[in-house]
Specification:
It contains 20 helices and 18 strands. The protein is α/β, with parallel strands linked by helices. The protein folds into four domains: 212 residues, Rossmann fold (3-Layer(aba) Sandwich), CATH 3.40.50; 92 residues, Rossmann fold (3-Layer(aba) Sandwich); 76 residues, ACT domain (Alpha-Beta Plaits, 2-Layer Sandwich), CATH 3.30.70.260; 94 residues, ACT domain (Alpha-Beta Plaits, 2-Layer Sandwich).
Amino acid sequence: MHHQDTRMLEAYVKKILQARVYEAAIETPLSAAPMLSKRFDNQIWIKREDLQPVFSFKVRGAYNKMATLTDEQKAQGVIAASAGNHAQGLALSAKKMGVRAIIVMPCITPDIKVQAVRALGAEVILAGDAFSEALAHARTLIEKHGYTYIPPYDDPDVIAGQGTVGMEILRQHPDDIDAIFVPVGGGGLAAGIAAYVKYLRPEIKVIAVEPADAACLKAALDAGERVVLEQVGIFAEGVAVAQIGEKPFEILKDYIDGVITVTADEMCAAVKDIFEDTRAVSETSGAVALAGLKKYVQQTGAQGQSLVCINSGANTNFDRLQHIAERTELGEQREAILAVTIPERPGSFKQFCNVIGDRMVTEFNYRYAQGDKAHIFVGVRTQPGGQDRQALIDQLRSADYPVEDLTSNELAKLHIRHLGGGRAPSALPEEAYRFEFPERPGALMRFLSFLPEGWNISMFHYRNHGAAYGRVFVGLQLPPDDLPQLEHQLDSIGYRYWKETDNPAYRLFTSQ
């Protein structure tokens, strides 16, 4: 470590030691996770930030930042743009200090978060679809009314507030720790923990964990500078950030020991793991760190180590749990989703069931195809790890059944498994598209109003996941010459979409 670097860390450690967080936050327990520990052959601990008064660590940074304000700044009122936990942390901090708080939230913010912020006495303004639009609106209000902006992560006092999590971990676990796994969105929590831990116990690894489709720290480290992601996956909205914070990156670029990225299914599996060991329901971003820890153990073969992960929050819509539970089986590779073609004749279905044997079937969709064939969409319980799934596929193929493995096929998991019905007889070819749009009242109707008239909608599936984004699967019948015009029209809607006409799940079950 250079002298220069030590000075920066030392400055942060002093800030962390003097941070005023406990007037609003509590020191949260470091819970042992006996079932996970046994399963992964390491001592695993979960830092329970989901037990904060606002169910997330964000209250620490918000309160510490507000504690540095002058009386004049407090009198002006504070403002933040946030879709989630920062909003609640700031609202609680402002309430404790008797300061007026205005929170600008994107219109897609789940109702539970809007209500929670209002319940804490803050004023909520809904503006824009995305966080960036909400932030722009907040800036306009600052210019107009002179409010003080409280950033969610890109600020030394906020970083120091979050760093108290690291301070507590070292105090609560004075024995050896091999690695601490931290979720990363804007990087405030990871930077605070890294600064404190690397100054005092540099031998402890601090490992960042991000969703694979929102890995802004990984992208910045790979590029050697902060970059803006073009697309950000919003499955774990608490860490859905397009660019790592400037101040956090100054610390993270030198002191982080690695970045692990995880998928949506892996996060869902981690939500279940946390529940099984602690009976707490974390939000998807709250389980990101544990998902990374599990991957680390699998990748490095670590045994007998002390590993700590942070459950950063528990602000999730109740109706989202259904979707999380459904994806969990896939995240743990405990379920195979297969498309199997069987001959259409008496007794063939029973024969197929004999081949599957005594495995548990989790889902079954049967669809008559042309002439002498039928397609079966089947979910089968398998042993984790993937080998068992392959064995099942080999078993079916050796019995002469054509099999298509759809276990990692997004379209199959989101839509096809919920679709019934047959095929539309038509002279016109069908094109299939999958869409994602901000979920809010009227969003589905708005989407439908954009779809071109004169083209037949031959298939439609929409399911509300209780998430911030709605997902739709559409089949359109149109003359081949109209294709370029169709895609032009779809681009103009401005929603993310994927063409799925060639997807095997669609081809087997829904295409004509």
